[in-house]
C-alpha cells in the first residue's frame, strides 16, 4: 500500500475542537487534542481509494480520526457476503470503542476515497473515560445508537434475491472461462446448488464447507475473516494486520468466486452513464438550487455527462457552456403563478410528471442516476410518481423538512415555537400552524400526504440525504426508516479568503432570505435595543420592513457569493437568528471560515458544535432582551477575545463541513452504490450487501 504510512508533524484534533482557557480537553462524543497531548499522536497517514486501513480481528491500541475523505467499515455475513456497515465521513472516528474495551476490531476498514487519517494512542481515550463521567455517558450513548442502526440495516439488507445469485454465478463462470467461452469448447454448468444456496458457493444450512484446492486461496469467508489477507501456504491462513500496515489483496490463481457490488469501486467499476439533477430552478437564489448547480459543475469537471431538469426556463448559460444538457418546464413558481393554478399544481403538477417521465422513457440507462434537490416550488411531489421506475437509482436531498413536515420547518408560525407533533397526525392536522391561514394549512396537508405517499411509503426510494445528523430524528418521527437516511454535510467556500479582522469592527451582519422563519425581525429588534448597527444582505417578503428600520440598519439586497466578501469586511459578527430548527446554516460556516464569529439561535443544529469550538455564541434569539444582551456583551468584549474567536473560527470551521471535492466524491459514492445495487457490476472480490451511511 504505497504511501499509506506517510507521517507528518501536523497537530490534529478529533472532531470539533473546543479547548478551555486552562488547556483542558472538551468532549462532545468527539475529542480534541491540545499541544499538551501531542505525544498521544502516533502518526498521520494517507490511503488511496480501496486500500485496507485495518482488518477485522486485529488488536490495536490506536484510534484514528478521518481528517479528509471517507472510510468504509464492513463485515462478513454468515453466507459469505460482505456487508458495508457504515461510511465514516470526515471527522469521524475509527476504533475508539475497541480501544476503550481493549478488544479486537470487529470490522474491516477500507479507504472509500483518497483519504488522510490521524492516529492517536489509546491511552488518551482510556484516561478520559476513567476521569470524565460525561464522556463515559456519551460513549455508551454512541455505542447503543450504532448497535441499533446496525440491527436495522441487517434486517433491511440481508436478504439475497435469486437475480443477484444468478448474476454473480454467471460472473464467476465468466471469470473462469473468459469472455470467449463460446469458442472454448468447454461446457458451462450452473448447478442447482449455485442458484439455490449462494452464488459464491457458500453451502446452505446443514451443508459443510468444501476445502479449498491445494495452493489456491479460499475466498469463501466466514465472519471476522479478512477478505483480502494473503494465504500462508496451502492452508490459507490469514495474516492479521494493524492500522495502516501493508495488506495487498492477492489474486486467485484460477477463479474468483463471487461478484462484488462495492460501495467504492476501483478503476474497473461500473461507469456512471449520466447524472440527472432535478430541481425547481436552474439559477441559484437559495441554498438548495445553489448546491444543485454546484454539483452539475463539479461532475462536469470530471467529464461526467449531466442532464439538468428544472421547473423554470432552464436559462443557465454557465451550465450550458459546460456541456450540461438543460431540460426546462418553462413554468413559474407557486408565488408567481395564478392562484387557482398554483392551488392545483402545487399538489400535482401533471406537466412536470410528463416532462420527467418522457425524459426517462427516451434516455434512461441502467447506469443513469437521478438526484432530486428541490420540488416544492414548481415541480410538486408528483415527480416522484414519474421517478418510480428508476427509484432504485434515485437520491433525494432533504435540504429542508418538506419531505416530512407539511410546512417544511417543524415550526408553528402562529405560536412561534418549534413543533414536535407527528406530521399529518391528528394533532398536526388540527393545529393552525401555517404562517398564512388554517385553510392554507389544509392545502399543505393535502400536499404533505402526497409526498409521504409517494416518497416515505415507497421503500424503493432508499437513499435520502440529510444535511446534518440531527435531521434524522425529525424524519424518523415522521415515519421514515432510519436505514434510508444518510448524512452528507454541505460543502462550504469562505466568503473571504483572508481572515476578516472582526476585532476591529463594530457592525453586525445578517445574510439570508428575508422571511419570518429566518428571524430577520428578531435581528432588527435586538440590534435596535442594543444600540448597534446592522447590515442586511438578502431579499424576500420582509424587505420593506427592513428598509424602513432606520439609519442603523443598512439593507444592500441580494448579493452573489463573490460580492458578499467585500461587504462583510467591516463586520464584527454574523447573526443567524432562525426561529425554526435550522438544518445546517450554510451561511454560518461560510462566515466562520472567513473569520467572523457567529451569534446564533440555540435551536440551530450547528449551534452546539460551533459554541463548543469557541467560534460562536448561542442564545434564545426569539427573546428580544436575551438577544440584545448577547449583542451588547459581544460589542463590549475585549479586542483580544474577539480576535481569538475570529481566529478559531477561521482555523477550525472547515471541520464542520465538506470541501467541494469531498462533497462531490461523497455524492458519487452514493451513486456508485445505487448502480452496484441495481445493476450487474464488474467482477471484484466478494458479494457485498449495501449498507447505509451513518
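^ Assign residues to that structure.
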Amino acid at each position: 500500500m504505497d504511501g499509506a504510512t506517510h507521517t507528518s508533524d501536523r497537530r490534529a484534533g478529533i472532531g470539533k475542537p473546543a479547548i478551555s482557557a486552562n488547556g483542558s480537553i472538551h468532549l462532545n462524543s468527539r475529542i480534541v487534542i491540545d499541544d499538551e497531548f501531542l505525544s498521544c499522536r502516533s502518526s498521520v497517514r494517507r490511503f488511496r481509494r480501496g486500500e485496507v486501513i485495518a482488518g477485522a480481528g486485529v488488536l490495536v491500541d490506536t484510534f484514528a480520526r478521518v481528517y479528509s475523505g471517507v472510510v468504509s467499515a464492513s463485515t462478513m455475513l454468515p453466507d459469505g457476503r460482505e456487508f458495508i456497515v457504515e461510511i465514516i465521513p470526515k471527522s469521524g472516528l475509527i476504533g475508539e470503542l475497541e480501544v476503550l474495551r481493549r478488544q479486537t476490531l470487529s470490522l474491516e476498514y477500507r479507504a472509500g476515497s483518497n483519504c488522510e487519517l490521524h492516529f492517536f494512542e489509546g491511552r488518551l481515550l482510556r484516561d478520559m473515560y476513567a476521569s470524565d463521567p460525561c464522556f463515559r455517558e456519551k460513549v455508551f450513548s454512541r455505542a447503543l445508537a450504532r448497535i441499533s442502526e446496525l440491527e436495522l440495516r441487517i434486517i433491511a439488507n440481508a436478504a439475497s434475491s435469486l437475480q443477484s445469485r444468478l448474476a454473480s454465478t454467471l460472473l464467476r463462470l465468466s471469470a473462469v472461462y473468459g469472455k470467449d467461452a463460446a469458442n472454448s469448447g468447454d461446457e458451462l454448468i450452473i448447478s442447482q446448488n449455485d442458484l439455490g444456496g449462494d452464488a459464491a458457493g457458500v453451502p446452505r444450512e446443514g451443508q459443510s464447507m468444501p476445502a479449498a484446492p491445494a495452493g489456491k486461496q479460499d475466498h469463501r469467508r466466514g465472519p471476522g475473516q479478512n477478505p483480502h489477507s494473503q494465504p500462508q501456504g496451502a492452508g490459507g491462513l490469514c495474516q492479521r494486520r494493524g492500522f495502516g500496515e501493508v495488506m495487498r489483496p492477492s489474486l486467485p490463481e484460477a477463479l474468483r468466486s463471487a461478484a462484488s457490488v462495492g460501495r467504492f469501486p476501483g478503476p474497473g467499476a461500473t461507469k456512471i452513464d449520466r447524472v440527472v439533477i432535478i430541481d425547481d430552478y436552474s439559477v441559484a437564489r437559495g441554498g438548495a438550487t445553489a448546491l444543485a448547480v454546484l454539483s452539475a459543475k463539479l461532475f462536469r469537471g470530471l467529464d461526467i455527462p449531466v442532464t439538468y431538469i428544472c421547473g423554470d426556463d432552464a436559462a443557465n448559460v454557465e451550465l450550458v457552456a459546460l456541456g450540461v444538457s438543460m431540460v426546462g418546464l418553462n413554468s413559474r413558481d407557486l408565488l408567481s403563478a395564478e392562484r387557482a393554478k398554483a392551488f392545483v399544481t402545487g399538489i400535482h403538477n401533471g406537466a412536470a410528471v410528463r416532462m420527467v417521465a418522457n425524459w426517462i422513457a427516451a434516455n434512461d440507462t441502467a447506469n443513469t442516476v437521478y438526484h432530486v434537490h428541490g420540488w416544492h416550488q414548481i415541480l410538486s411531489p408528483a415527480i416522484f410518481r414519474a421517478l418510480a421506475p428508476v427509484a432504485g437509482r434515485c437520491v433525494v436531498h432533504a435540504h429542508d423538512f418538506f419531505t416530512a413536515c407539511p410546512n417544511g420547518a417543524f415550526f408553528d408560525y402562529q405560536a412561534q415555537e418549534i413543533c414536535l407533533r407527528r406530521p399529518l397526525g391528528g394533532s398536526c392536522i388540527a393545529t393552525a400552524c401555517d404562517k398564512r391561514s388554517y385553510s392554507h394549512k389544509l392545502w399543505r396537508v393535502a400536499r404533505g400526504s402526497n409526498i409521504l405517499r409517494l416518497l416515505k411509503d415507497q421503500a424503493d426510494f432508499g437513499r435520502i440525504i440529510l444535511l446534518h445528523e440531527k435531521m434524522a430524528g425529525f424524519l424518523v418521527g415522521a415515519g421514515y426508516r432510519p436505514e434510508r437516511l444518510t448524512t452528507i454535510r454541505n460543502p462550504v467556500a469562505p466568503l473571504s479568503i483572508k481572515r476578516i479582522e472582526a476585532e476591529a469592527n463594530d457592525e453586525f451582519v445578517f445574510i439570508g432570505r428575508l422571511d419570518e422563519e429566518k428571524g430577520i425581525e428578531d435581528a432588527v429588534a435586538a440590534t435596535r435595543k442594543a444600540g448597534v448597527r446592522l447590515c442586511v444582505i438578502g431579499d424576500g417578503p420582509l424587505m420593506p420592513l427592513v428598509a424602513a428600520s432606520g439609519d442603523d440598519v443598512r439593507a444592500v439586497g441580494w448579493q452573489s457569493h463573490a460580492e458578499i466578501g467585500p461587504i462583510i469586511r467591516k463586520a464584527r459578527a454574523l447573526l443567524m437568528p432562525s426561529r425554526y430548527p435550522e438544518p445546517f446554516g450554510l451561511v454560518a460556516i461560510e462566515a466562520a471560515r472567513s473569520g467572523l464569529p457567529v451569534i446564533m439561535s440555540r435551536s440551530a443544529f450547528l449551534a452546539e458544535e460551533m459554541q463548543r469550538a469557541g467560534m460562536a455564541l448561542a442564545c434564545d434569539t426569539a427573546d428580544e432582551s436575551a438577544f440584545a444582551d448577547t449583542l451588547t456583551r459581544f460589542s463590549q468584549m475585549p479586542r483580544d477575545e474577539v480576535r481569538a474567536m475570529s481566529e478559531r473560527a477561521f482555523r477550525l470551521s472547515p471541520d464542520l463541513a465538506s470541501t467541494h471535492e469531498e462533497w462531490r466524491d461523497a455524492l458519487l459514492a452514493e451513486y456508485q452504490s445505487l448502480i452496484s445495487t441495481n445493476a450487474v457490476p464488474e467482477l471484484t472480490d466478494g458479494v457485498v450487501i449495501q449498507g447505509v451511511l451513518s
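DSSP finds 21 helices and 26 strands in the chain.
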